[in-house]
Amino acid sequence: MSNTLYPHPKFSIITVTYNAGKVLEDTIQSVVLQTYRNVEYIIVDGNSKDNTLEIVEKYRNRISQVISEPDKGLYDAMNKAINNANGDYLLFLNAGDKFHSDDTLEKIIKGVSSVHGDDFDEETWPAVLYGETDIVNDNGEFLRHRRLQAPDILSWRSFLNGMLVCHQSFYVRADIARQFHYNLRYRFSGDFDWCVRIMKDAVQKGLPLYNTRQILTDYLAEGMTTKNHRKSLFERLRIMCRHYGCMAAIRQHLWFVVRAMVKR
């Protein structure tokens, strides 16, 4: 790639792990095979007891930082990564998840620079880069497109209709992310709350949310939130009450229940 064609902001790619040896290698390979090279890769491990760290060591020369120590859960580990990230944008690609293609990041930068100019300027570039997500099985085989689709124009109010953009397909400017750590009161839906707070801040700063119009992530089915679906829903209701008001949140959750029953 020529430096004269488009800017080269650095991506901080973050993978949080705990006993993820069965699925981690595919994630690491999807990172190291990216054609876009201005990246740092950070792995935050919760002191795994399986072969996770053996796999990490296998790719150690391609990983910028490895943090392995006990933590207070997923969102505590993500906060550690935010504190240690040195990139211009950060994104979370958890163990088992993968970039949709080897040139995902390269295509994003080409698209953004065509709209926002050839010089990277963290004062004017989008607060968030977002896109679509596909659901895959343990073998990385396509199962379906994610049911909730990213809207053409995203705003913080969009999430009243659910988490329309998957967390793994929501890339945030690092200078903004550092101002908004994950709230450790939440165990399952802290990413929902974090994304809303990020988007609210973007409005206040007058910064755009950029739709890449691409599938960014292959998301492994049966993630933590999926496995704890009911608990996640109750937690999300609390978060939505906080951001949108309880009447609107309850009304929307009743609609979620009706929609789920109809789909059966």
Account of the 3D structure:
There is one protein chain. With 264 residues, the protein is an alpha/beta fold. It is 37% helix and 20% strand. Strands 1, 2, 3, 4, 5, 6, 7, 8 and 9 form a 9-stranded mixed β-sheet that branches. Strand 1 (11-17), helix 1 and strand 2 form a beta-alpha-beta unit. Helix 6 packs parallel to helix 8. The chain is globular and about 50 Å long. The protein starts with 10 loop residues before the first strand and ends with a helix.
Q: What is the 3D shape?
A: globular
| N to C succession of SSEs | EHEHEHEEHEEEHHEHHH
Report the average pLDDT across residues. Answer: 90
Decide which structural class fits the backbone: alpha/beta
Binned, the helix content reads 25-40%
Main sheet specs? 9 strands, mixed
What is the strand content? 15-25%
Number of helices in the DSSP assignment: 9
Low-confidence stretches: 1-5
* Secondary structure: number of strands: 9
Cα-based radius of gyration, to the nearest Å: 18 Å
End-to-end C-alpha gap: 49 Å
Descriptive tags:
single chain, globular, 37% helix, alpha/beta, nine-stranded mixed β-sheet, 264 residues, disordered N terminus, 9 helices
Secondary structure blueprint with pairings:
Blueprint: E1 11-17, H1 24-32, E2 39-45, H2 52-58, E3 65-68, H3 74-84, E4 89-92, E5 98-99, H4 104-116, E6 128-136, E7 142-145, E8 170-173, H5 174-177, H6 190-205, E9 209-220, H7 224-227, H8 229-244, H9 246-263
Parallel strand pairs: 1-2, 1-4, 2-3, 6-9
Antiparallel strand pairs: 4-8, 5-9, 6-7, 6-8
Helix pairs in contact: 6-8, 8-9
